[in-house]
C-alpha cells in the first residue's frame, strides 16, 4: 500500500470549494440510469462535495468521504449527504451496501489495488463504479497557450508524478470491473471573469507547491499577458473541461 495520504489540497480547501467548477448535471442523470437501485451512492474523495451535491438529487442517501478533514469542513451541506473523514481504501462502509461509487478527479491518488478491493466489498451485486478526470481547460486560441505554458513550463517539476495519469485520462490504469458500453461525451463548463479564472488556477496543487517552495506566485508571471488577451476583466468567457470517464459494474 502507498505510504499514507498525500494531502495536496487542504491548505487551499476554501478556494477549492469556491473556484473548482461543477460537473455537468447530465452526467449524474446518466449514472443514475445505470444504477439498478438508487438508495445509496458513495462519493469517494469528495473534496468540497461538488459531485456529492449532484448525486443527492438522484439517490436517497449519499455518503461523501475524504481523507482531508479541511475539505470536509468546507463542503456544502445537504440533508441526505453524510460527510465523513475516511481514506479511500478504508471507507468504513458496510459490505454490499452501495449502489454507485463515484470518484471525481482523485483516482490517481489512491492505492488502486486496495481501493478496488474496497469498492468490490461495498458495492451491491450489479453495482456501478464511475471514475473521471479532466485535464487542461479550454477557453480560446488567444488565452489557452498562456495557460499551457504555465502548466507545462513554469510549473514543470512541481506537479506530483500522479498527475501523468490525469493527462492520459486514466486510460492505462487497471480497472477490474465489467466495462460499460459506449459512454456519452461529457464536459464541465463555466462562464468566468478573469478573477474567477485566476482563482481556479490558484487551486492547482503545483501552484501551491511552488509558492511554498520558492515564495513567489507563478500566477503573477502570467497576469499581465492574461489581462491583455482577456480585455475587460469583468467580461465573462466560456470555459470547458472535457471529461475522461471510465465506468464498470461489479458482477
Written account of the structure:
With 251 residues, the protein is an alpha/beta fold. The protein has a domain at 10-139 and 161-190 and 242-249: Rossmann fold, CATH 3.40.50.150. The chain has ten helices and eight strands. Strands 1, 2, 3, 4, 5, 6, 7 and 8 form an eight-stranded mixed β-sheet that branches. The longest helix is centred in the last third of the chain and has 12 residues, at 219-230. The two termini are 25 Å apart. The mean pLDDT is 92.
* Strand tally: 8
Order of helices and strands: HHEHEHEEHEHHEEHHHE
Share of helix, binned? 25-40%
CATH topology of the domain at 10-139 and 161-190 and 242-249: Rossmann fold
Q: Which stretches are poorly predicted, pLDDT < 50 over at least 5 residues?
A: none
Reading off the top of the CATH hierarchy, the class of the domain at 10-139 and 161-190 and 242-249 is best stated as: Alpha Beta
Q: Major sheet, described briefly?
A: 8 strands, mixed
Structural class: alpha/beta
How is this fold's topology laid out?
Blueprint: H1 13-19, H2 25-34, E1 40-44, H3 50-55, E2 61-66, H4 69-74, E3 81-85, E4 98-104, H5 112-122, E5 123-134, H6 144-154, H7 163-167, E6 178-179, E7 187-192, H8 194-201, H9 205-214, H10 219-230, E8 237-249
Parallel strand pairs: 1-2, 1-4, 2-3, 4-5
Antiparallel strand pairs: 5-8, 6-8, 7-8
Helix pairs in contact: 1-8
Amino acid at each position: 500500500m502507498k505510504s499514507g495520504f498525500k494531502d495536496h489540497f487542504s491548505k487551499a480547501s476554501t478556494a477549492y470549494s469556491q473556484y473548482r467548477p461543477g460537473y455537468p448535471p447530465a452526467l449524474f442523470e446518466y449514472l443514475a440510469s445505470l444504477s439498478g437501485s438508487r438508495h445509496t451512492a458513495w462519493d469517494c474523495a469528495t473534496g468540497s462535495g461538488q459531485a456529492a451535491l449532484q448525486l443527492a438529487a438522484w439517490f436517497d442517501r449519499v455518503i461523501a468521504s475524504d481523507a482531508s478533514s479541511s475539505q470536509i469542513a468546507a463542503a456544502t451541506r445537504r440533508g441526505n449527504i453524510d460527510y465523513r473523514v475516511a481514506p479511500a481504501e478504508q471507507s468504513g462502509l458496510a459490505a454490499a451496501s452501495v449502489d454507485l461509487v463515484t470518484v471525481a478527479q482523485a483516482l490517481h491518488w489512491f492505492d488502486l489495488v486496495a481501493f478496488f478491493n474496497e469498492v468490490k466489498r461495498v458495492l451491491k451485486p450489479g453495482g456501478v463504479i464511475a471514475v473521471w478526470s479532466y485535464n487542461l481547460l479550454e477557453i480560446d486560441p488567444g488565452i489557452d497557450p498562456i495557460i499551457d505554458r504555465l502548466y507545462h513550463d513554469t510549473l514543470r517539476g512541481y506537479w506530483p508524478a500522479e498527475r501523468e495519469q490525469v493527462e492520459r485520462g486514466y486510460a492505462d490504469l487497471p480497472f477490474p470491473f465489467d466495462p460499460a458500453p459506449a459512454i456519452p461525451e461529457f464536459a464541465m463548463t463555466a462562464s468566468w471573469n478573469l478573477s474567477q479564472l485566476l482563482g481556479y488556477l490558484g487551486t492547482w496543487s503545483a501552484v501551491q507547491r511552488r509558492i511554498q517552495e520558492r515564495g513567489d506566485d507563478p500566477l503573477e508571471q502570467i497576469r499581465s499577458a492574461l489581462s491583455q488577451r482577456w480585455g475587460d476583466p469583468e467580461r465573462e468567457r466560456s470555459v470547458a473541461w472535457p471529461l475522461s470517464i471510465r465506468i464498470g459494474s461489479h458482477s
